[in-house]
Task: structure prediction
Amino acid sequence: MAKCDEGYLCDVCGNDVADLIESDLYLRYIVGMLDPEVLHTTPERHIRCNPELAQYIVADDFEPVFREGPFDKRNLDREFVRQQETLFTRGWHRLKEVAGGNLPIIEYPLPEVLAKIKSVSPGID
Result:
């Protein structure tokens, strides 16, 4: 099977990341952790397969993820945790929005992330 026919396989569990709303890659892109130029070269994984990130999504429609160990948010600075929860929860809601639409990929990020991309990338309107 050609690589492009395999779909996007999670680099943690090996299973297909079948839906955009499961994509750690696109969630990280939406919140500004990934430049659009590296989307095609960055490994994919399920959001839940990245508990360091998933633990910060606080939404009724997202089952909480707990990360044991030194990166467990329950052991981190409260202000940092609040900021991360705000960012990743907003990102999760944005991911669900774009999953149901026909937006170009460049328009997926949160508004402040998109503004930053446009400021450093001539030709993107």
Observations:
- The radius of gyration is 15 Å.
- Helices lie at 24-30, 51-54, 78-99, 111-120.
- Residues 8-120 form one domain.
- The chain has four helices and no strands.
